[in-house]
Amino acid sequence: MNSPRPRTRWAGALAVVVLALVAPTGRGPAGATTVPVTPAFVPVPAASPVREDFDGDGYPDLVVADGTATVGGRRGAGRVTVLYGGPDGLSVGDAGRRAEISRATRGVPGAPVAGEGFGSRAARGDLDADGYADLVVTTAGTSDAVIVWGGPHGLSGATSVPAAIAWTGDLDGDGLLDLVLLRPARGDGAPGTRATVRTGPVRRTGVPAREAALDPGGLAHVEVVGGATGDVDGDGRDDLVLSARCGAGAFCTYVYRSTGSGPVRTAGHRGGPAVAVGDLDGDGYADVVVDAGTRADPAPDAAHDGGPARRFDVAHGSAAGIGERVAWTSVTVPPTSEGPAPSGAGARDGRSGAAVALLDTDADGCANLAAPAAGEAAGDGTFRALSGCPEAAAANAVRRR
Fold first, then answer.
1. CA-to-CA distance for 100 and 4, rounded, in angstroms?
2. What is the spatial distance between Cα 179 and Cα 208, in angstroms, rounded to a whole number?
3. What are the backbone dihedrals phi and psi of residue 272, each rounded to the nearest 5 degrees, phi first?
4. Topology of 45-214 in CATH?
5. What is the 3-state secondary structure (H, E, C) of 19-58?
6. Residue 11, Cβ neighbours under 10 Å: how many?
7. Contact call for residues 191 and 135 (beta carbons, < 8 A)
8. Which member of 7, 238, 265, 365 has the greatest number of CB atoms within 10 A?
9. CB neighbours (10 Å) of residue 233?
10. SS3 track for 100-145
11. Residue 342: what are its φ and ψ, rounded to 5°?
12. Strands ordered across the beta sheet of 250-259
């Protein structure tokens, strides 16, 4: 049986010998007194919260979210698949080391509903501070999100929380993950987002250590569609970045710096629907990348067919954080020449949605950006891998196998 990662340590010992300038007591050597101390079990937060390991075996696990999956004959009901890691890598093809989680799974509240899109997004991290990562699954609509709890045998049991979008992050720097929940503020179709921060640990009933509203005035008239967390100022607290519809056909990016009194908005930027946070240049500060949509290829050549190119706006983190005066730079990635873009909503609007990600895939200390090529929908084949390190800052089209 796997045991959880240690999150506590023994403080004290069975006895402590205290040297004192006192007369001998007969209970110990001259000049010394033996003082018995009751053992104390003092919780100490982990130096780094567990984020990827659902079963506590020390190996990261992979989540594949599919909000379009058919479950119980209901198209678009959605599900997530978890591939557990191990000494031989991911458990691909091993039914005993994978889990399919949907509304039909025992312990998950609700029942499969056509078009709900359960699993359209997923966040993860150890919310209840038991040493196992937990999984937060949201839907494509306004249904409640679900926290599926990690444990020595993997994910099991679930709790509903009121959110259409959710992220995890250590916003107060205490070594425990917090939960950011967002849902529509009104049910009449008008824009508006209600956001709360549930400070960890979050009990399995869904009750947090404390809860506070996030920017109720600023988010009351915009529709948040994406976001990410990461430490942009290197102070040990994760900061929050949100993307929102802020007008007809317009998107805005909001940066919130985490402080001792909670997240405070420090910057705004006209951007796109998808955002990612990670250390692009390896300087120890997380950077913010916004998918700014497509534009005509500025330099078509034999390798690039002159079709739509994708633009990303980048703000680099620093000790000062990302404020209104930080300069955003644009990176234009040329289109692929590997054939026409597939049909579908993603191809029509040329946006990659939540597929933009920053991961250090080559272990060089710099995050790499991955997003569908211009004109392609997430999951439709061709994507762009953009290296963050200055010495390798080149875009390459990669065909997904």
1. 23
2. 9
3. -130, -175
4. Methylamine Dehydrogenase; Chain H (2.130.10)
5. ECCCCCCCCCCCCEEEEECCCEEEECCCCCCCCCCCCCCC
6. 12
7. no
8. 238
9. 19
10. EECCCCCCCCCCCCCCCCCCCEEEEECCCCCCCCEEEEECCCCCCE
11. -70, 160
12. 223-230, 239-247, 250-259, 262-271
Encode pLDDT of 337-387 as tens digits: 333 332 222 222 222 334 577 777 667 788 877 766 554 444 444 455 566
CA distance 288 to 322: 9
- Residues with Cβ within 8 Å of 340's Cβ and at least 6 positions away in sequence, in order, are none
Quickly list H helices, 284-387: 345-349
Give per-residue pLDDT as tens, 284-319: 999 999 988 765 555 544 444 455 677 889 999 999
Structure tokens at 186: 């009104």
Q: Where in the chain is the domain with CATH 2.130.10.130?
A: 45-214, 222-337+352-390
Give one DSSP letter per residue of 58-106, joined into a string.
Answer: SS--EEEEETT--BTTBTT--EEEEE---TTS--TT-GGGEEEESTTST
Burial class (CB in 10 A: 0-12, 13-18, 19+), 390: exposed
